[in-house]
C-alpha cells in the first residue's frame, strides 16, 4: 500500500508539493475501486435505494474532488506557492487497495471502512495543505 | 436410746478431741491418696493428700504391697514427682501387678494411715497432653484448608521413644458449644477440610497410649479463616478519548476485589501487527487509565486494547476494545468567552459574543477543525435555545430583552467524526436597559405642558367663570337709554337727578290722590315686532307673557298702539318700548325720574330710590317687578325671569346714568348684581323681597308681579290705547287716541274724545305707563290711581324698582337725542304741583 503519514507531525513535515501529490494519488487510487463497488452493489437487491444513490453520489464526488485539487494545485503552482519538483501526473498504481477485477478480496463493509478512512485522510491532508498555503483563511 | 447414746458419745469424743486440739497436739489426720497414674506404663507415681497434721511435724510414709503378697515395701522415691508423692520407677513398676498402697502419717503423738489404694498400673496409664499445637491455613485452587500440627507429650525418660501415641483432635467454631472430634491417628498433624471462610476455629488435641486412658486435652488454639479468596472478575474498558486528535487516553472500570489486591495491565496491539504492547503511561491520566502520548498514537489505524486484572488467586481479562483515534476526538470546551455590547447603525444595541477554541486543539494548522454551538436562556427561564454557530468564533445576538440576565454556554466538536465537548461554564450576561433619553424628555415636556395648560384653564375658569357662562348664555342686554349724567347719579342727590330728568315735583304729591285717574295702559304689542331684534330667548318669554294679557284685552283696533308705535318708533325708539326691553323702560323711567317733577313715570321715590346699576361688572340682574299698589296692579308679566335686571335701590350709589348708558354699551344680557346693593339694602334694613345672590348669580328680586298675575290682571284695567300725539309745548300731555269703548272698561267714560293725559300715575310692569288725565282738562271720571299710592308702594319696597315703560313713544320730543333713547317726560307731562 501507499505510505501515508500517520499523524499531524508527519503530515506537517512533508513538503507541500509532496503532500499535494499524495492527495492526488489517493484520490486517483480510489477512482476505479469506487466504480467497481458501485457496479457491485447495484446488483444487490437488499440494499435500500437511498444507500445506492448515496454510494453513487459519493463515488462521483471523488473524481470531482481530484479535479478540484488539480485545479487548485495548478493555481498554486502558477502563483509560485508550490514549486513543482515532482511529476504531477498521478500514477495509476492504485496502490494500497486490494481490489481486483476478478474477486473481491474485501468484504463490502471493509471496503467502505477503508474508503471512509482514506477520505478522512484526504480531508485532513487538504486542510493542512490549505492552512499551509493560505494561512489567513480561518487557520 | 442407742442413737442418743452414740451421739452423746460422739459429742464427748469431739469435746475430748477439741480439748486435745486446744491443747495443740494430737496425732495426725488421715492422709488420702489422691491419684496414681503412669505416664508411659513403665513408671508411675502416686500422690496423696495429707490430713491435718495435728500441730506437729508429720512424716508421711507410703507402703505398698504387690498383689497379694504380704511384703510391704516403702516408696522408693518421694521426691521425683514432687511433695506428697511417690514415684515408682521402672524397677519397681510391674504393669501386671496390683499394688496395694497406703500412706501413713506419723507425728510425735501418733500416726494415721490412709485407706489402702489398689493400683493397677495398666489402668492408670495416662499420658500428658500433646504440646506445641499449631494451626495454619493453606489455600490452593480456591480451597482453603486448615492444618493442625502438634508434638507428643514430653517424657522425662528420653530414651524410651517407642511410645506410640494415638491422637485425637477436636475443633469447633468459636461461639459454638459442640466439639467436632476427629481421630487423627498416630500422626502429629492433621488437615481440616471443609473450613468455613471468615470463621474462627478452636482446636485441641489429646493422645493416648495403646493402653490406658486418654490424656487431657491440650490447650486451645484458635485461628481465623480469611474471606474471599478468589481471582478477580473481568474488568471493562469504559471509553477512550482524544482531546486534540494527537493523543488519547483510555479508561477502564476495575474488577471487583477478590480479597486480594488487584493489579491491572493494559495491553494493546495495532491493526496489522502481531506484537502486543503494554500501556506506556498509567499515571498521567489518573487511576485506572492509560495515556497514549504522541509517539504512541497513530491515526487511521485500529487499536486492539484489553485490560487484564490480576490478583493472588488469579487473573481475568476484559473484552477487547477497538479504537481508531480519528473517530474518538472529543475536544475541551471553548474558553475565553467574552461579551461586548455594540450599537448597530440604527441605534439598536446588540451583543457580540466571542470565544476561543480550547487551548489544546490545533486549529491553526488545520489539523483539527471545530464547529461551535451555543445555547442561551433567560436566567429565570427553563428551556435552552440552541444555536449552531459553525466554525466562526463569534456570534451576534440581536433582539434581546433589555434589563434581563441571560445564561450562555458554548461547546464544540470536530467538524467530522467526533463528539461534542462539554458545555463551557455558564456565562451570565446582563443586558443593560436602554434609557431612551429622547422618550423621557418628550414625555416630561408633554406632562409639564399639559399640567400647565390645565392650571391655566382652571384659573381662567375660576376667575372668569361668570364671563364664560355669560358668553355661553348671554343675557338679554339692557336698555340703552342714555342721557342721564353719570356723575349726577353718582353723587346721589336725588333732587338734582330728578331735576335733571325733568321731573319736577317728584315724587308726586298728595294732589294726585284726589284725582281720579283714568288708567291707560299702553299696549306693548310692539314686542312681537321688535323681538327679532332682540334676544330671542328673552323676547320669547315676553311673548308668552303677552298673549295672556292681550287675550284679556279686547280693545285692540285702530287705537292699537302698535300702529302708532310703528309710526313713531324707529330704530332706537323701539327700544323704549316696554315690549322690547325692560331695561330701556327702566331707563326711560329713570330718565324721567331725574329732574322732572311733573312726571310721574316712575313710581320711585326720589332720593333713595334711584337704582344704581353697577357698570363695571355687568352681571345678571333681574328686573324687579314694578310694584304697583296692590289693589290696582295691572300685572304684566312682561319681564322674563331670565333676563330680569335687577336695579336695586341704593342711596349711595347712584349710577343710573351709567346704568343707562353702560348697559347699552355693554349690552350684556346680564346686569351686574351689585354687591353694594346688598349692602345698601342691608343698611336699610328693609329687604322684604330681596333675594340677592352675589357674585355670579342674578339677583332676582322677588317679583310679585308674575306670581300674582291673576288677581291683578284686571282686564278692565288694561286697556290699550294708542297714543295719538304727544303734546309737549304748552301742556305737555299725551294725547291718546280715542279708544273704542268695548264697554268692558267701566272706567272709560268718555268715548270718542281724545283724552289728554298729562300725568303718569303709575308705571306698571316695566312697560306700561299708567297715565293720568289732567284733572282740569277732563272731566272724565277716569279712575285714576292716586299717584300717592305709588310712591308709598314704592317706598315700601325698596328693593323693587318700578320701572315701566312709556309704551308710547314721544318721538317728537326725543328726536333730538337720536343716539340715546332718551325720553323727556317733561315733554308730555305738566309739572306736578
From TrEMBL, chain A:
Gene Ontology cellular component terms for the protein in this record: extracellular space
Pfam families: Hormone_1
Entry's Gene Ontology BP terms: positive regulation of receptor signaling pathway via JAK-STAT; response to nutrient levels
PROSITE patterns, alphabetized: SOMATOTROPIN_2
Coiled coil regions, renumbered to chain: none
GO molecular function, one term: hormone activity
Keyword vocabulary terms for this entry: Hormone, Secreted
Location(s) in or outside the cell: Secreted
Protein family (similarity comment): Belongs to the somatotropin/prolactin family.
PANTHER family: PROLACTIN LIKE, SOMATOTROPIN,PROLACTIN
Protein name: PRL protein
Phylogenetic lineage: Eukaryota, Metazoa, Chordata, Craniata, Vertebrata
Automatic annotation (TrEMBL), chain B:
Record's protein name: Prolactin receptor
Domain Fibronectin type-III as annotated: residue spans: 30-128, 129-228, 231-332, 333-434
Signal peptide per UniProt: 1-24
UniProt topology in membrane: Single-pass type I membrane protein
Protein's cellular compartments: Membrane
Residue ranges of the TM segments: 440-463
Record's keyword terms, sorted: Disulfide bond, Glycoprotein, Membrane, Metal-binding, Receptor, Repeat, Signal, Transmembrane, Transmembrane helix, Zinc
Organism: Probosciger aterrimus (Palm cockatoo)
Single Gene Ontology BP annotation: positive regulation of cell population proliferation
Cellular component GO terms, alphabetical: external side of plasma membrane; receptor complex
Amino acid at each position: 500500500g501507499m505510505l501515508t503519514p500517520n499523524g499531524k507531525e508527519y503530515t506537517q513535515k512533508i513538503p507541500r508539493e509532496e503532500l499535494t501529490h499524495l492527495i492526488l494519488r489517493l484520490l486517483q487510487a480510489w477512482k476505479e475501486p469506487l466504480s467497481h463497488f458501485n457496479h457491485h452493489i447495484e446488483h444487490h437487491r437488499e440494499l435500500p435505494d437511498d444507500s445506492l444513490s448515496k454510494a453513487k453520489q459519493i463515488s462521483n464526488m471523488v473524481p470531482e474532488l481530484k479535479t478540484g485539487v488539480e485545479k487548485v494545485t495548478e493555481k498554486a503552482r502558477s502563483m509560485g506557492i508550490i514549486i513543482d519538483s515532482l511529476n504531477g501526473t498521478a500514477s495509476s498504481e492504485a496502490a494500497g487497495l486490494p481490489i481486483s477485477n476478478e474477486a473481491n478480496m474485501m468484504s463490502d463493509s471493509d471496503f467502505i471502512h477503508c474508503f471512509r478512512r482514506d477520505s478522512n485522510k484526504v480531508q485532513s491532508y487538504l486542510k493542512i495543505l490549505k492552512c499551509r498555503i493560505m494561512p489567513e483563511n480561518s487557520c | 436410746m442407742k442413737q442418743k447414746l452414740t451421739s452423746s458419745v460422739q459429742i464427748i469424743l469431739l469435746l475430748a478431741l477439741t480439748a486435745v486440739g486446744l491443747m495443740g497436739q494430737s496425732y495426725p489426720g488421715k492422709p488420702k491418696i489422691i491419684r496414681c497414674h503412669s505416664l508411659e506404663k513403665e513408671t508411675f507415681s502416686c500422690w496423696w493428700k495429707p490430713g491435718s497434721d495435728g500441730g506437729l511435724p508429720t512424716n508421711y510414709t507410703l507402703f505398698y504391697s504387690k498383689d497379694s503378697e504380704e511384703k510391704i515395701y516403702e516408696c522408693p522415691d518421694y521426691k521425683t514427682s514432687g511433695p506428697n508423692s511417690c514415684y515408682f520407677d521402672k524397677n519397681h513398676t510391674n504393669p501386671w501387678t496390683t499394688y496395694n498402697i497406703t500412706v501413713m502419717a506419723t507425728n510425735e503423738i501418733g500416726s494415721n494411715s490412709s485407706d489402702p489404694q489398689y493400683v493397677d498400673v495398666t489402668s492408670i496409664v495416662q499420658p500428658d497432653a500433646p504440646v506445641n499445637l499449631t494451626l495454619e491455613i493453606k489455600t490452593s485452587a480456591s480451597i482453603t484448608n486448615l492444618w493442625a500440627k502438634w508434638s507428643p507429650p514430653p517424657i522425662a525418660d528420653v530414651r524410651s521413644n517407642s511410645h506410640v501415641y494415638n491422637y485425637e483432635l477436636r475443633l469447633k467454631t468459636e461461639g459454638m458449644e459442640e466439639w467436632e472430634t476427629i481421630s487423627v491417628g498416630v500422626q502429629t498433624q492433621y488437615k481440616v477440610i471443609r473450613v468455613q471462610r471468615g470463621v474462627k476455629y478452636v482446636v485441641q488435641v489429646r493422645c493416648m497410649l495403646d493402653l490406658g486412658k486418654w490424656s487431657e486435652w491440650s490447650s486451645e488454639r484458635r485461628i481465623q479463616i480469611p474471606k474471599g479468596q478468589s481471582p478477580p472478575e473481568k474488568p471493562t474498558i469504559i471509553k477512550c478519548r482524544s482531546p486534540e486528535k494527537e493523543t488519547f487516553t483510555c479508561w477502564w472500570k476495575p474488577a471487583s476485589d477478590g480479597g486480594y489486591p488487584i493489579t491491572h495491565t493494559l495491553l494493546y496491539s495495532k491493526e496489522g501487527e502481531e506484537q502486543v504492547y503494554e500501556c506506556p503511561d498509567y499515571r498521567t491520566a489518573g487511576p485506572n487509565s492509560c495515556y497514549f502520548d504522541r509517539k504512541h498514537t497513530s491515526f487511521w489505524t485500529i487499536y486492539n486494547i484489553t485490560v487484564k486484572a490480576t490478583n493472588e488467586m488469579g487473573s481475568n481479562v476484559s473484552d477487547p476494545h477497538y479504537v481508531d483515534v480519528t473517530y474518538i476526538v472529543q475536544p475541551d470546551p471553548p474558553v475565553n468567552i467574552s461579551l461586548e455590547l455594540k450599537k448597530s447603525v440604527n441605534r439598536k444595541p446588540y451583543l457580540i459574543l466571542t470565544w476561543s477554541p480550547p487551548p489544546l486543539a490545533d486549529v491553526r494548522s488545520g489539523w483539527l477543525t471545530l464547529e461551535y454551538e451555543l445555547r442561551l436562556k433567560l436566567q429565570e427561564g427553563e428551556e435552552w435555545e440552541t444555536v449552531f454557530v459553525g466554525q466562526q468564533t463569534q456570534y451576534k445576538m440581536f433582539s434581546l430583552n433589555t434589563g434581563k440576565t441571560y445564561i450562555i454556554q458554548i461547546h464544540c466538536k470536530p467538524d467530522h467524526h467526533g463528539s461534542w465537548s462539554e458545555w463551557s461554564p455558564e456565562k451570565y450576561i446582563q443586558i443593560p436597559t436602554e434609557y431612551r433619553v429622547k422618550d423621557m424628555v418628550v414625555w416630561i415636556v408633554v406632562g409639564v405642558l399639559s399640567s400647565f395648560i390645565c392650571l391655566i384653564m382652571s384659573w381662567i375658569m375660576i376667575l372668569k367663570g361668570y364671563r364664560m357662562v355669560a358668553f355661553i348664555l348671554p343675557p338679554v342686554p339692557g336698555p340703552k337709554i342714555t342721557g342721564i349724567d353719570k356723575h349726577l347719579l353718582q353723587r346721589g342727590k336725588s333732587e338734582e337727578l330728578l331735576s335733571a330728568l325733568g321731573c319736577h315735583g317728584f315724587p308726586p304729591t298728595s294732589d294726585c290722590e284726589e284725582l281720579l285717574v283714568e288708567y291707560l295702559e299702553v299696549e306693548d304689542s310692539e314686542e312681537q315686532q321688535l323681538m327679532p331684534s332682540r334676544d330671542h330667548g328673552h323676547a320669547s318669554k315676553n311673548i308668552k307673557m303677552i298673549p295672556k294679557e292681550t287675550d284679556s284685552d279686547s280693545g285692540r283696533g285702530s287705537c292699537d298702539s302698535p300702529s302708532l308705535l310703528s309710526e313713531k318708533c324707529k330704530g332706537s325708539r323701539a327700544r323704549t318700548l316696554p315690549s322690547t326691553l325692560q331695561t330701556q323702560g327702566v331707563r326711560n323711567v329713570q330718565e324721567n325720574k331725574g329732574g322732572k317733577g311733573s312726571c310721574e313715570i316712575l313710581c320711585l321715590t326720589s332720593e333713595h330710590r334711584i337704582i344704581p346699576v353697577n357698570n363695571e361688572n355687568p352681571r345678571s340682574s333681574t328686573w324687579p317687578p314694578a310694584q304697583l299698589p296692590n289693589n290696582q296692579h295691572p300685572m304684566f308679566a312682561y319681564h322674563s325671569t331670565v333676563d330680569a335686571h335687577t336695579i336695586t335701590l341704593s342711596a349711595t350709589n347712584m349710577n343710573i346714568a351709567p346704568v343707562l348708558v353702560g348697559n347699552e354699551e355693554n349690552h350684556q344680557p346680564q346686569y351686574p348684581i351689585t354687591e353694594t346693593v346688598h349692602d345698601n339694602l342691608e343698611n336699610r334694613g328693609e329687604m322684604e323681597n330681596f333675594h340677592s345672590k352675589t357674585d355670579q348669580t342674578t339677583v332676582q328680586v322677588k317679583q310679585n308681579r308674575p306670581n300674582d298675575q291673576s288677581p291683578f290682571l284686571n282686564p278692565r284695567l288694561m286697556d290699550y290705547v294708542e297714543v295719538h300725539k304727544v303734546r309737549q309745548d304748552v301742556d305737555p300731555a299725551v294725547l291718546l287716541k280715542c279708544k273704542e269703548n268695548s264697554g268692558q272698561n267701566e272706567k272709560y267714560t268718555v268715548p270718542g274724545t281724545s283724552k289728554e293725559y298729562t300725568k303718569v300715575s303709575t308705571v306698571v310692569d316695566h312697560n306700561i305707563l299708567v297715565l293720568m288725565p289732567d284733572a282740569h282738562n277732563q272731566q272724565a271720571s277716569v279712575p285714576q290711581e292716586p299717584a300717592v299710592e305709588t310712591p308709598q308702594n314704592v317706598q315700601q319696597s325698596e328693593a323693587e324698582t318700578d320701572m315701566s315703560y312709556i309704551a308710547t313713544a314721544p318721538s317728537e320730543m326725543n328726536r333730538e337725542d337720536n343716539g340715546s333713547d332718551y325720553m323727556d317726560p317733561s315733554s308730555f307731562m305738566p309739572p306736578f304741583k
